[in-house]
Queue: 4 jobs
Job 1
Amino acid sequence: MQLTAKPSLPNALLISISTPQFKGDEATESLAELARLVTTLGFKVVGTQSQKQSSTQKVNVLGSGKLAEIAHLTGNKGMVENEQEDDVLDEDPLTEISSEIPSNDLDFACADVVVFDCDLTPSQLRNVENQLGVEVFDRTGIIIEIFSRHARTKTAKLQVEIARLNYVAPRLRETSTGDKERQMGKGAGETTLELNRRKVRDQLAELKRELVSVQDVMMDRRTQRSELFSVALIGYTNAGKSSMMRAITGSDVEGENKLFATLDTTVRALYPITQPRILVSDTVGFIKKLPHDLVASFHSTLAEAHDASLLLYVVDASDPSFRSQLEVVHKVLAEVGVEGSKKLLVLNKSDQLSTEQQQSLMDEFPDAMMTSTRNLDDISKLHKYIIGIAQEDMIEEEIVIPYTAKGIVGEIRASMSVVKEEYEYSHIKLTVRSSAIDLERLKKRMLNL
């Protein structure tokens, strides 16, 4: 039997631009997050580089000296010139996320791609690619690519494709002879670039029309579920929401230890099943510096949270940066207009914390709930909490049902919680707990018997 070697992963070099507005721990945490994003795409992070700049808006986002250094790490495939720029403030290498690339060793594996932890303008991207001779990504490009790969539902695919085309449109480039060539026939007089841009505009218009139609269908489905008590799991990507979804609904929702393992909103019933049913939705994970165009995608993927009766803010309590991640969640929720009347902070992954760490967090967040999806007692506690909140809005009432009323008792058991049953000579007396809407609907039905 002959073993086939696995293909090596593309090597990625990460670049951080430190500015007066973006520096220190914030820049370090953001670069570490970028490494996880890049890994999610299947790249191998082989090193990082950083440079202090007064701004990321310059024509040359990096000084030429730093470019020359990076060009060496990518195999000197471009046309960079080793000259220093006057506007460079300082060079400040960050702690390496993976092993450092030895710049004095000519036998090291060159970086195949370079990824910037900031947004680059089309001209900046083009300049850096020309200088380095390898493919260059910015943070937005990486996130959009991840969203594109992980979208599953029609709505998510449409919105991500709209975001992708909005990102790609200004980055379209003319072919080598496109500046002079003119296309014959339809569109005569237009360059290849102009035709491509018009094609993108047409695609965007068609996608937006299709999205409106799909969203109308989704709105109808949410309206049908709106009378049920619903819980929305929200939080930073990789906080363990999908694992919690599986634990409290008994479902097979996908969950992996990577960023954006799931993108589409999933809705399941709380398990063990309650009467009336309680719905639980697992929404897309949040992330820092979310591209503006993708905020629109969150309008759809977080639509379930708009109508949720209870919001569970799930955080990875074992991640030291979860507080700043929680701020991102609050910010994005405010941007998309999601406001819940009831909220619970869930400090997840407690099994990765010591007893002292757990106690410290509970002292800091006394109203939170400490959980681990691997602990059945924790899941049972969360299940009881959800039911308790749901029952706060329920009304308890006694209903008298004559034996001649066929099918009513079965419908009540399917949609309401029966607290007490009494069988009399001519009727059944049920004490039920239900929403005011369902009780009013039942009473009207009883009047027509």
Note: The radius of gyration is 28 Å.
Job 2
Amino acid sequence: MTPITEVEGRRLALSNLEKVLYPATGFTKGEVLHYYATVADALLPHLRDRPLSFLRYPDGPDGQVFFAKNVPPGTPEWVTTAEVPRSEGPARMVLVQDLATLVWAANLVTEFHTPQWVIQEPGQADRLVFDLDPGAPAAVAECCEVALWLRERLAADGIEAYAKTSGAKGLHLLAAVRGASSERATAYAKELAVEAERAMPRLVVHRMTRSLRPGKVFVDWSQNAARKTTATPYTLRARAEPTVSAPLMWEEVEEVTEFRGPERLVLRAPDVASRVHDHGDLLAPLLDADRAAPLP
């Protein structure tokens, strides 16, 4: 029998709780739901008012993995949805506004991906993002070096950057911005990516061309486009282990560049739950409108 639980007054049917989703560690679907419930206070503010793109992996990362942007079939009527403009025509998408919706969405087994704008102002950037993706033999240590350069460069323009793991191979840099369209944010991010390549030509590439990327860090500026989404802070990823796109302290990034333990930047669900308990949300400043900076 499918278990029924009540979350904030909403009745939810939770399925296959004993199913192993991460075979490398035996991490089950029930543990996935427990993780999201544990970090909900930190995660929900980063999801609020942002149309959700689902990257679903219902049979684990070795099964079918697929994107779904439209409201899924069978979505409860109490889940908040919104019409979102798209180049191919408007679409209706889910907004995760509360714990009950978060648990419902997590039960679908999905990564959470969101844009750099909120539904009240589609295409008006309130976030700037850089996705640092290493091409082997480059790895996370090289990403950390690039992240520190970008942090200083952004600071020179009055923009405060924060780091998180991608949950995969690299790092994400985030900053709160205001007064800019997604087009302007994309153009600015590209300018800095090109500048980084000029400053560190042996380490950085700003173009996506695969043949250019071995041994370098691709600074992906394109995720600032209005149509693009990025893994939301605290989302689990569809990887061999239950790794999380988790906030970092800059001290941790600096330590890796000094060759002291890049393995620290592989953060799994139990690690992240403990970090949130100990430190709260390290990305909370992104939610403070008074700290959002204008683009130069």
Note: The chain has six helices and 17 strands.
Job 3
Amino acid sequence: MAIHLTKESKILVQGMTGGEGMKHTRRMLAAGTNVVGGVNPRKAGRTVDFHDRPVPVFGSVAEGMDATGADVTVVFVPPAFTKAAVTEAADAGIGLAVVITEGVPVHDSVAFLDRARKRGTRVIGPNCPGLISPGQSGAGIIPADIAKPGRIGLVSKSGTLTYQLMYELRDIGFSTCVGIGGDPVVGTTHIDCLTAFQDDPETDVIVLIGEIGGDAEERAAAYIRDHVTKPVVGYIAGFTAPEGRTMGHAGAIVSGSSGTARAKQQALEAAGVRVGRTPTETARHVLAVLDSGA
């Protein structure tokens, strides 16, 4: 099994005919992802050939869903148009929208996330690398060749650290890796993924990657303490961040002890999470958990 994305998922790509959309659609197809269509109202009715795989372009998400049975959309549209794209997808009733776009205004994110929640559409992102269930499907920009299928579940704010931990643990493998994005407002949270991994019988250990700033990791720690029985290993980016300076794509500001990597580490460790100070140390903790059968 996997969470949110399986080999049965049928994927539309909003913005498929743009530069980034074309590049990453080609990569998704090469990885075996079932991309069933693109969406661009100005190019509806055309077909784009990706080597030996023709992919039709639809005028709307609703049209694409009706024609193909798609249940996932990946959004590669510019920030100014992201609100409209996600709102369209939610109004069409799609189950999952993966929003890769960086630089989406926060007020736009708040608006489309509220709309999606009311329509029953799960949003991952914005400003995220997407998610991948190795050997099954990938929606977004996570490379498919850095990990194999396995029994580790990973949820991360950081795209780069998602890739690094996948590579560090490539010989063990993953059920699903989810990059939730580091913007101040995101659709799917650490807690959402912890819940799903806890319920997934094919996930044995969970890796949680956080960053300085905000309190998402502290809230995740409280949830782990009360609801997660599987072992969790954590990593917090930003142990060396200077106090009072804006850091990272999350725009995180560390002031005093609030939002620091150390404070997050303490909260997670109090909930029974092993926390590494580097990605390599974090990977060693995962291997130790698997070796111990804990």
Note: Residues 16 and 38 are 5 Å apart (CA to CA).
Job 4
Amino acid sequence: MSRPPIWDSEHGLLPTVTAGRILRSATKRLDCPDLGLRLAAYQNMSMLGPLALAVGNCDTVGEGLDCASRFLYVHNQGIRLSRTQDPERYAGVGAVEYRMLHPDIPYEPQTIDAGLGLLHRNLITMSGGYELLGVHLPHPPLTDESVYTGFFGAPVRFDTGRALLRVPTRLFAQPMSTPVNPELRRMVVEYLEAHYTDPREGVVTAVRSAVNRALGTVPARVDLIAEWLHLHPRTLQRRLAREGTSFQVIVDDVRKNAAHRLLTGTDLPFSEIASLVELAGQAALTRAVRRWFGRTPTQVRRDAMEAREASTASRVAQG
């Protein structure tokens, strides 16, 4: 059996339903009804990749949760985190809810246990230890209830229809337990904004972001980009057509912008720029740049240099 391409892509994400089925199958084969909680016990914030750096360098726990909520799609496109009101409506109590993004995707109990368990462990890391007042789960207990209370260290209610942690609202204003680096947070957030797109946004924006990530690293092919977006290639093409464009038009525009940035902002050889924008050599780059800008690569680079020199001379004259 051939290896699915998604396993070899650092940008590949398993569909939420598929991941849930894998976990459910493993639970059955291993005869381990608390597998979700056990997985959570062995995981930490590092599994979030660059998102962990952004979250861990926020000033407060609440800001860290908001950052995680904003960018969680980078790690998992099927779930969302949000701060919300206490379902039991106690004064001074709030909640952090873990929910499925699409209402037509069924809750997989093991996935919920693993996700909420990891959220609990991450809150401990962020705060240095916090008071968990209660846990709500949308499903019946999958093992003895004492396993849940032992893991969370708090009362657990089942069949509530929601997955959340009840916490004191003062937790949200609590400083992070470790020193933070605001500059690192800013750089990581800028990276996430530039390289990833929330799947709730339009398909054109999502495809453009995916092509930007692919360009110069893996072939920007429609089948690969469709796989990243969990769409069939024909479905992706139809949706782009409904928005008045096509995959090739987007790829050409991304190449154009990348070529202009590399020509005007770097001293890279033209042959290397051609490779980075997936054009077959310097001659192909020259033809493309003439089509895009009406000038040769040498002229584009020279004009940009002259514009910078003129700007510098103007500032010197004024200063």
Note: The mean pLDDT is 84.
